[in-house]
Amino acid sequence: MKGRIVCLVSATLTCQLTPSLVTTALAESGAASVYSTESGGGTASGQKLNPGALTAAHRTLPFGTKVRVTNKKNGQSVVVTINDRGPFVRGRVIDVTPAGARALGFNGVTQVTLHVGE
């Protein structure tokens, strides 16, 4: 009887604790654009917009999330930190700062893949 209780408690704890300990990688594809620095000096997170920083805007990812952005056309990638909301143009998945765009080797709009949690 004692062994069964230990197994039951162990199985219950494993089922309850495992989901919070496991991180799953999230991948998303779509268009990336370069942040407009004309819209003001602030971001939705409260940080000052810094065109030279490796930061980005995403519609739903929590602020502070690190995202690897890979340019599908040339294979270049960079890790950016989410600190703003957007983009608000249909079909776009992320806005990167001018520094992020330079690191990715594009200006304007390009197709990218986002990897979170790797």
Describe, in plain words, how this protein is organized in 3D:
The protein has 118 residues and is an alpha/beta fold. The chain contains 2 helices and 6 strands; from the N terminus they run αβββββαβ. It has helices at 2-21, 98-104; strands spanning 26-34, 55-57, 66-71, 77-84, 92-96, 109-116. It has a 6-stranded mixed β-barrel with strand order 1-5-2-4-3-6. Strand 3 and strand 4 (77-84) form a beta hairpin. Mean pLDDT is 83; it is low at 1-23.
Query: Helix count?
Result: 2
What class, by secondary structure content?
Answer: alpha/beta
Strand order of the largest sheet: 1-5-2-4-3-6
Which percent range describes the beta-strand content?
25-35%
Alpha carbon gyration radius:
19 Å
Return the string of H and E elements: HEEEEEHE
What is the arithmetic mean of pLDDT? 83
Set out the fold topology.
Elements lengths: L1 H20 L4 E9 L20 E3 L8 E6 L5 E8 L7 E5 L1 H7 L4 E8 L2
Task: Briefly summarize what is shown.
This protein has 118 residues and is α/β, with parallel strands linked by helices. The chain is built from two helices and six strands; from the N terminus they run αβββββαβ. It starts with a helix and ends with a strand.
List keywords for this structure.
33% strand, six-stranded mixed beta barrel, 118 residues, disordered N terminus, single chain
